[in-house]
């Protein structure tokens, strides 16, 4: 087995440039994908206010106030250009006479769009909400004014309307209707960048599988050029060949993930939480199980072409199932959740997430690493068994 | 008891019978040649002897021990040279030899000495530091053989070791095999090159379609042809009528033609038969450019036994 380990490491040394290339790409893509979920995307809405009335400005103010969209107050021509060139998702036109029409329940707001996307519905909601608020304020104003007139109380009608609008707006903004208190189980508080970290961990795990399978590729090469067969007829036992390959590939996979964790931490400031050591232990168990899965695949396929076609399917498929690309909390299907339990990614991701995002301690890793190691052993035994049968 | 004996060995791959109940034996110090066309079952046979494949039926005994029950018994004493270049192309010649030496338990100064000795035998000592991927085809083949010699095996199995190399490297490999045999090594050598087997082997098994169709020494095999002679006649033209005329001649066993060469195998060869053959060609107004009467060889034996040429 030492002989196999030695030659594997020697082969890796001869391929250091590939190792570091893959590593750099893994760190970079993890960072890029992670960062993309952090971005503050706000769609642009162009507003054309031809009426310039109190009411139209109230609508514009409401739209400006919303933090999920960006607004640009402009003329009709510029708005049209922006929408046509996809710089803006829509333009809203308040035509001249909007104020009067509104008072006669005949107001028209024109929405110009090129496609139906979620943010359009948001804009429609804002307009409807604003119309509702203005209607409400107008109703309160009319009722108050009637009451004051009936009691012959003199009042500045303009300042009454301003006062009603301000009071109503303050009341809506204070949202004093009820308080919602939410707690995390065990009183742990989620990190504010939880989503970003989930994807960082998920992508780190996915890229580490690619690296492990790269190591498995050289075993397929050995089979193709008969080196593996020659090893099998030598006094080195088949178990030693399989185990030696497993240890060497796991070690290199561990090195890669080690550099990913600390490279990401120091180069891009990726925060892996306070439990670096525990994270590394889980990742090592994860690399072990995926290496054994790789060896199982290596025992079943014969050519690089077969491996090349199967690796992306397995890597991306199990990563999707295991929750690397989205949170498993949003999955309802019991079948999918059961399949997720069969993927190494799910166990590694869940435990690292608990430590990095929710601040759990080291005790949380015991079950996942036991499952990961067990998975690895099952894969390894299957690989060894297929190696014996196929040789 | 033989050094190595194979009894009733069979191997099927799905519906294809690669080896069909073959038996042969080998004494220490012999060179056994497995001769046959591609797909004859030679590689499958040696894969079973070298413990790479498990036979479906049969027994392989190595020095009175069943290697099916105790594969380790032969593995340590076996030098296996696969048909493929089973080396690490990105490593140097020395690194490759050291790896295979270690695989057979060599280490330290003994390993170093063996690497030097073997690299001298196979003629690559000057290039040991170079990466294998930069070697010529012949050098790779020689290194492929060298990797099987480091542990001084008692038995060496070579599966078509000269495929695709230049005549000079081929000669070097054949002479190396003879030299190793002189030093006491027993050799099983597979090839579809009749000349190689004739040159090297003192015992030959001719295989076809998974069966051993003949075995013995070269002389014993050639003797099977009795008074058969192979006559190659180069003519200006060949047509079916002439071929049929020759085929109907008394004592003509087989007629083949390649372009404008007619290959006639004759039994009970006598001078007047030859004269009759020439007369028929003259009557058909065919111009004869040359005539060669060949002594029977393994090619002729294969042709006689199968009706096909060895390289068909």
Characterization of the model:
- The complex is a heterodimer of chains A (391) and B (312).
- By secondary structure, chain A is mainly α.
- Chain A folds into two domains: 2-37 and 190-390, no CATH class; 44-174, Periplasmic binding protein-like II (D-Maltodextrin-Binding Protein, domain 2, 3-Layer(aba) Sandwich), CATH 3.40.190.
- Helix content of chain A is 69%, strand content 5%.
- Chain A contains 15 helices and four strands.
- Chain A has helices spanning 2-14, 16-38, 54-65, 76-84, 98-103, 118-150, 157-174, 194-224, 227-232, 238-268, 276-300, 304-321, 334-341, 344-356, 366-390; strands spanning 44-49, 70-73, 90-94, 109-113.
- A four-stranded mixed sheet of chain A has the order 2-1-3-4, with helices on both faces.
- In chain A, α8 packs parallel to α11 (276-300) and α11 runs antiparallel to α14 (344-356).
- The longest helix of chain A has 33 residues, at 118-150.
- The two termini of chain A are 18 Å apart.
- The model of chain A is unreliable at 186-190 (pLDDT under 50).
- Chain B is an alpha/beta fold.
- Chain B folds into two domains: 4-218, Rossmann fold (3-Layer(aba) Sandwich), CATH 3.40.50.300; 229-295, Protein-tyrosine phosphatase receptor IA-2 ectodomain (Alpha-Beta Plaits, 2-Layer Sandwich), CATH 3.30.70.
- Helices cover 34% and strands 28% of the residues of chain B.
- Chain B contains eleven helices and 14 strands.
- Chain B has helices at 42-49, 71-75, 93-103, 108-121, 137-146, 167-182, 194-200, 218-223, 240-247, 271-283, 298-306; strands at residues 4-13, 16-26, 31-35, 57-62, 65-66, 78-81, 155-159, 186-191, 203-208, 211-216, 229-235, 252-258, 261-266, 288-294.
- In chain B, strands 6-7-8-3-9-10 form a six-stranded mixed sheet, sandwiched between helices. In chain B, strands 2-1-4-5 form a four-stranded antiparallel sheet. A four-stranded antiparallel sheet of chain B has the order 12-13-11-14, with helices on one face.
- In chain B, α3 crosses α4.
- At the A-B interface, α1 and α9 of A face α3 of B.
